[in-house]
Amino acid sequence: MTLCSWDGLRLVVTQRAVTGIWVSLWPGSTAKLPPLVVPDSESFEATVHREELIAALDTAGCRHAVNSTLTFGRQSSLITQPADVCAVFSLPGRDNHVPHRDRHYLDVMHKHTA
Predict the structure, then answer these.
(1) In terms of DSSP H, where are the helices of the chain?
(2) Is the dihedral of CA 71, 44, 31, 110 positive or negative?
(3) Whole-angstrom Cα distance, residue 4 to residue 7?
(4) From its phi and psi, is residue 105 left (phi > 0), alpha (psi between -120 and 50) or beta?
(5) Residue 48's Cα: distance from chain center in Å?
(6) Tens digits of per-residue pLDDT, 90-104?
(7) What is the distance between the alpha carbons of residues 35 and 16, in angstroms, rounded to a whole number?
(8) Rounded to whole angstroms, how far apart are CA atoms 83 and 27?
(9) Which one of 1, 21, 44, 75 is CB 3.0 to 4.6 Å from 90, fit for a cystine?
(10) How far apart are CA 112 and CA 114, in angstroms?
(11) pLDDT tens for residues 30-45?
(12) How far apart are CA 105 and CA 114, in angstroms?
């Protein structure tokens, strides 16, 4: 197993196949995928609150449910079905520059295939 990491993107490679992917975001920041992975990628706003993502999933017809294993304290999580992509949200930290301090913002999305 090999772990490859570029800023907020991590890939797990097992027997020459990607078996896990994580995209980590920091609310109030801008994200860009590394050119080595996605040539000519554009920067994008990394601030996504839970209700925005849920609305986008609903609009796309993507089923999802609360991930009770990762929903506790100051964080919440959901998992898409049937793809099992997990999204984890939390309340912003004091260094996060966000418009609504009482909303849960996306921290990480990940998927394991093996």
Answers:
(1) 50-60
(2) positive
(3) 10
(4) beta
(5) 9
(6) 988 888 778 888 899
(7) 20
(8) 25
(9) 75
(10) 6
(11) 777 777 767 787 777 7
(12) 27
By the 10 Å C-beta count (0-12 exposed, 13-18 middle, 19+ buried), 105 is classed as: buried
Q: What is the mean pLDDT of the chain?
A: 85
Query: For the chain, how far is it from start to end, CA to CA, in angstroms?
Result: 11
Q: Are strands 75-81 and 86-90 parallel, antiparallel or unpaired?
A: antiparallel
Strands (E), 1-114: 2-6, 9-14, 17-24, 30-31, 44-45, 63-66, 75-81, 86-90, 105-112
User: Is the peptide bond between 82 and the residue preceding it cis, with omega within 30 degrees of 0?
Assistant: yes
Instruction: Extract the tokens encoding 7.
Output: 């800023």
